[in-house]
Amino acid sequence: MQIFLVVFFLLMPALVIYLSHQLSWVQRIGVIVTCYLLGMTLGLSGLLPAQGRPTAQLVSEVTIVFALPLLLFSLDMRQWTRVAGRALLSLLCAVSAVTCLATALFFLFRDDSGMAANLAAMSVGVYSGGTPNLAAIKAGLDIPNAQYLAFHSLDAVVGSLYFLFMLTLGVPLFRALLPKREPRTTSSPKQDSDIDQPDEDDYRPLLDKRNFGQLAAALVLALVAVGLALGASQVMALVTGAEASSAVVIVCLTTLGILFSLHPRVRALVLSYRLGMYLIYVFCLAVSSLVSLGELLQLDATVAIFLLVVVFAGLALHCLLCRLAGVDGDTFMVTSVAAVGSPPFVPLMARALNNPAAILPGMTTGVIGYALGSYLGISLGLYLRSL
Questions:
Q1: 3-class DSSP state for residue 326?
Q2: Are 154 and 299 in contact (CB under 8 A)?
Q3: Which of 18, 43, 96, 105 could form a disulfide with 291 if both were Cys (CB 3.0 to 4.6 A apart)?
């Protein structure tokens, strides 16, 4: 069963890519959204057995850690200098929006149990950083397991709805509401290559024997980056006495991917981006299959209202602040995804935008969010509890 599931997750995106060239409706929906919908259907229908969920989790974790450095190897750091200020400004707007809404909801749902303060703290932590911050806030505030598990379960569901919206209706909506991004003055590696194809979803070069050397080199570099990142996480765990953190792994992978890309021979591995994006499709299929109908039916209504308001009203407030600040639509969307979903989801948004240059600012602001999330969540929780 486990082997069958692994093969299914690895090969199904290839079929979706093929269908996107044969069926106009699949092409309109897009490969990412189709993979996401397939995964959610698999999870909600019960076709994914309970014993298969650990396999899906493992596939999602392995593919994302290899995809992140592969996506960064061929990117040009010079593109970051044009968007750094706007990306950081957008991140500030996102953190401000979620903090204001979480605090307002605290006063709305406030009671003697302290549940509202805990929900506000976890919301700020997870929607400015990510799931690792959520675990840290639980430990820091001694949040009851029941509240933590309810929040964590619903976070996966609300996050799925958020990503589907952002990858479909969100792209034309926010590009219409916010200023357009500046045209790129530097060509991307894919444009400069005779190997790559104009079609963004043409993955035939990955099967060309002439390109196997380039792909092998990219995979070896990615393996080195993954090994170093996992090692750094273990060292950090030994030093601090805590468990190994996935946030440390993501930060190290992003940093190593950027550092490797500074070498021109690494940037010349233009197919690394396409290989990484294929792994993102696999990740998208596997992670969305973990949504469970049983978990949906057991969720607390208060937690559901709290999170739906924080995520979607926070998205609207973030958009309004970015419009006032003059932040372009693409920067807004990648930083929003980095804040709500954490850095691993940034490449999905960049692909939907057809804007690979957006990966770097999105990943960078996501890493900053990881660093700030726990501090913001615990600080807000302690303050609200004191009121």
A1: coil
A2: yes
A3: 43
Which residues contact residue 13 at a Cβ distance below 8 angstroms, ignoring those fewer than 6 apart?
Answer: 31, 35, 278, 281, 282, 284, 285
* Residue in this structure with the two tokens 């691993």, named with its chain if needed: 344
Taking Cα atoms as reference points, which of 33, 333, 368, 386 lies closest to residue 171?
333
> Residues 223, 59: contact at Cβ < 8 Å?
no
Range name among 223-227, 229-233, 359-363 with the lowest pLDDT average: 359-363
User: pLDDT-based confidence at 197, cuts 50/70/90?
Assistant: very low
Taking Cα atoms as reference points, which of 201, 124, 26, 190 lies closest to residue 381? 124
Q: Which of the four pLDDT bands, split at 50, 70 and 90, describes residue 214?
A: very high
Nearest-angstrom CA–CA distance, 125 and 377: 4
Q: What burial class does residue 236 get, using C-beta atoms within 10 Å of its C-beta: 0-12 exposed, 13-18 middle, 19+ buried?
A: middle
Supply the DSSP symbol for 182. P
Side-chain-facing half-sphere of 274: CA atoms under 13 Å: 27
pLDDT in tens, 39-75: 888 888 888 887 888 898 899 888 888 987 888 887 7
How far is 349 from 362, CA to CA, in rounded Å?
Answer: 9
- In percent, the amount of the chain with pLDDT more than 70 equals 86
Quickly count: other Cβ atoms within 10 Å of residue 161's Cβ.
14
- Give pLDDT tens digits for 329-358: 999 999 999 888 777 778 888 888 888 888
**How far is the first Cα of the chain from the last one, in angstroms, to the nearest whole number?**
53
Helix (H) or strand (E) holding 109: helix 84-109
Report the alpha-carbon distance of residue 167 to residue 224 in Å, rounded: 32
Dihedral sign (CA 247, 248, 253, 255): positive
Q: Cα–Cα distances in Å, from 113 out to 110, 116, 138, 385?
A: 8, 8, 16, 10
Can you tell me which residue has the tokens 């190593």? 256
* Residue-by-residue DSSP string for 116-146: HHHHHHHHHHHTTT-HHHHHHHHHHHT--HH
DSSP state of 112: T
Band of the pLDDT at 314, cuts 50, 70, 90?
very high
Assigned token pair, 79: 């593109």
204-214 exposure pattern, b = at least 16 Cβ within 10 A, e = fewer: ebeeeeebeeb
